[in-house]
Amino acid sequence: MIMQRLSTHHQVLALTALLAGLASTSAWAKDSKNDLSYPRIEPCSQRYQTVATPQPDLSAEDAQEGVRQGFGTKRSWGVDDNVELLDASATGLDQPGLRVHYPKGTSSPGDTEQGGAGFYSEPDVLDGAERACLTYRVRFEPGFNFVKGGKLPGLYGGEAPSGGDEVNGENGFSMRFMWRAAGQGELYEYVVSKDKKYGASVGRGLWSFPTGEWITIEQELVLNTPGEKDGLARVWINGVPVLEQSEIVYRTTDEVTIDGLMFSTFFGGHGKDWRTPRDQYADFAAFRFYIPST
């Protein structure tokens, strides 16, 4: 069971953040041009069936090969330089994980030296999926300095537009997460209905990432019917419902579906104000994909 409920203390913090966010729903709904609330149903990992549980292959000769074999990826960046494989004793879980390094002075891949890493995992069992659920766990090192923000993994489809790419309804979408200043969390979206050059910031501050402990991120996507604005995104943090977004346009053709995991993590943003002031790391583990059973 990878879902770990919050302690009483953390439940209070999460619910406080939730209520604060709901109080300002109209403000950030206007910014994103989408309706926001919070999920009123159980987490998607409890409603869908588990179909893939990728993890790094510790028998591989190096981290890049371990990721390639464990996640079935052929596209990656930064893995050979900035990723190390963790065994179960290092994660403190019952499974291995990844430690991603962000060297001092680095931010996004297009800005300066590469810090962090990225790859795509496309399990065959998601082929044609229009609804899917992703869970994984992240642990920022104790005292992690979040600076202005950085990227975290999420689901994607098609060409996984990012980095200022246009989203035209036929080339896919990406629904990553971000950490922001002081560890505030958000969804970071490249979808047809966004109104910004870069990704849309949705639900910022509805939860916060702690440091020095594991936290479970759970994301559910329901793609829109082509020609309709009926797409959904839902988020739970350690099982606590924090965000539901409606009226999302992911696509204009049913050829765009949910393809898999866009593992993407780095500081930035662009520019020196986003760069990490020191060497830092974050750990990732317990990736799970789910789809409806019928």
What labels would you give this structure?
35% strand, nine-stranded antiparallel beta sheet, alpha+beta, globular, 294 residues, seven-stranded antiparallel beta sheet, Jelly Rolls, 6 helices, disordered N terminus
Report what the structure shows:
The chain is an alpha+beta fold and 294 residues long. It has one domain (8-291): Jelly Rolls (Sandwich), CATH 2.60.120. Helices cover 15% and strands 35% of the residues. The protein has six helices and 16 strands. It has helices at residues 8-23, 25-32, 44-47, 63-71, 79-82, 88-91; strands at 36-37, 49-52, 76-77, 83-86, 97-102, 117-121, 131-140, 149-158, 172-180, 185-190, 200-202, 215-222, 231-237, 240-248, 260-265, 280-291. The strands form two sheets. Strands 1, 2, 4, 5, 7, 12, 13, 14 and 16 form a nine-stranded antiparallel β-sheet that branches. The chain has a seven-stranded antiparallel β-sheet with strand order 3-6-15-8-9-10-11. The chain is globular. The protein starts with 7 loop residues before the first helix and ends with a strand. Residues 1-33 have low confidence and may be disordered.
